[in-house]
Every structure is written in structure tokens, then in C-alpha cells.
Design a protein that fits this description.
Helix 6 crosses helix 12. The protein contains twelve helices and 14 strands. Strand 9 (about 220-225), helix 10 (about 230-250) and strand 10 (about 255-260) form a beta-alpha-beta unit. The chain folds into two domains: about 1-130, 3-Layer(aba) Sandwich (Rossmann fold), CATH 3.40.50.11980; about 140-340, no CATH class. The chain has about 350 residues and is α/β, with parallel strands linked by helices.
Length: about 350
Amino acid sequence: MKIIVDGSNVAYYGQKPNEETGKVTPSLKTLKVAIHTLKKLGHEPLVLADAPLRHEIDDKDGFNEMIQNEEVFPVPAGTIADHYILNLAYEEDAKILSNDFFREYQDEFQDISSRRLPYRVKDGRFQIGKPSPPKKVKNILQKICSKSLNEFESRGFDVYKSKRNNKFSGLAVAQEAINRVNDEEENAIDTKLENVFMKIPILNKLVGIVDEEIEDSDFLIFVLVNPKDYKEAVKNAGTIAVTVKNKLGLDHSPLVAVRNDLFTRPGAFELNIIYSDEILEESPYNLDIIINDSDYSFIKHNSRNIASTLAGRLGTWKFPRVAVKPSMLMEKPGQFEVSIERGGKN
């Protein structure tokens, strides 16, 4: 791994002021130990130092020899060393060995702590710490989903927007579905319904969906849950369908589809209930996400959850295709762009 060494910061580490002058003299030995340790660990150190260091260090001849041997590189004249180090680290995708927090550059260089390797010298040994984990921009998944759904809505598609986060249980889902279909106000769990629900055996298979079933069923219930609750919701899907059918006296059980929803908190649920003649079998558009390098892996890993969220909120049976692409033009964590293009059947 390429590691840029903040030469001045390392050379001044642990040095105490002179009792008479109060001056702190940087140590060439400490800098050499740091370089030796990095190489021993298999890293590629690139030592950068500001111009004053060659005049202040304790072994000037030794330091100048290292410059001649290209073991140390002074930053260009007129350049601020810290800025130069940070800029090079981001350009080369390298780590930085330094105990400097670079606070004055936090606005320009995002998430510096994930690149910075802290260090210490203990019992004569040079010890290198670990960088902080990269910061994730809060709610970036929800922001991507919101912007994507706005794109669909701008093209005339209805979007289910409720984010009430009702407390999740199979019985609560069934009660909510019955209330919604009957266009009733929310009320407490019906005791009689609870008895009916508990007597129905758990149906291990999700209610299937084929053209004939869509035509026979009056409506489809999309159960929107947090990914952590997906398995539990799937386990209850068949029982929910039968409970709703029996309570409402329907000829056919409604179709129940469980969808991961990135707007829903763990332990909560939302329902998007759509009449069968309004169901879109395929997503009318697919989604392209252009994302910064810092968030690329995270968003790529969650691309199916994004697709599931869009399908559940739009009321489409099949998921839209979600393509995630990194962009060098997006330098800061949290930056992204979305666009939709025609998909499915025209």
C-alpha cells in the first residue's frame, strides 16, 4: 500500500523543548524508524517534508543525504505542505502517516480521517494505528430512493409515499389491510380477528403470482418492511392473505408480496394496496445511479434493496433494473445523480 509520510509531523513526534531556549528540534532518527517500519510491513512510503525541516532537523547532513537519495522529497517552493500532502493522497488514493488532524482542510478534503494513519512510539518501537472507517452520508439510500421516485412521479406515475412506520407483526399487517380495504379509520387490533389469525397455520410458501391469479384476485397487498424483517414477513404472507380473505368474505385471497423498503424502520411496516387491474407487471423505467467512489461499494451492495423499494412504492411486480456506476467527477461522499430510462414493456 502506498503511504504518504508527513515528514515534519513524524520528525517532531515526542521531541521535548530545550530547557534553555524552549526550542523543539525534530529528530531524523524517528523519521528513519518510521520509514523502516513501513517498508518492513510491505508498504511503499513516500516521505514529503516542508522546506524549513532541512534547516531545523538535528542531523542536517543525514537529512540532505536522504533528499539526494530520493528517500525524502521537499514539497515545491511556495506550497503549503499539508495541502500538498492531502492533495497527493487523494490523487494517488494513498493513506497518510500523520498525527495531524488537518482540521483546517476538512471542508475541502472530505473524510480525511479514513485516510490518516495515526502512530506512536512505545518502548522504542514505532507503532502504526488504523484509519477511521469511511463515513457514510446519513440516509444516502433514502435520498437516492426519494429522488428516483420523484423522477417516476414527474412522468405521471403514482407513488406510495406513506412513511408512518406502523409496528410490525403478521396480525397488525392483516388488520391494517382489512381497515384499508374497508376504508375504515385506524383502530386497535380486533380481538376476534386475533383469534382467527392465530388459528390459521403458517403458510410457508408465498402466494404465487400468475396472470390467472391476478385476474381472480381483487387486489394485491405490497407489504413494505425493513430488510431485517423480510424473512419474518415472508413467513406470515400466506396467513395474512387467508385472514384478509376470511374477514372480508372475499371469493379469492388477495395476493401478498413482501418488499424490502429502505424508508421503513426495523420492526415497522407499510402497506401499498393496489387493485389488480392497476398492477404493473414490469417497471416502466429502469434506474441509473452515478455515484462517488467513496459510496460506490455501499450503494452497489444495496442496489437490489433500492430496486425493491421502488417496486413496492410504485406497485410493480417486477423490479426495475438498477445500474450503479462510479464517477471520478464526483469527489465528495454523498454526491450522486439518478436518471431513469424506458424499461419493461411499452
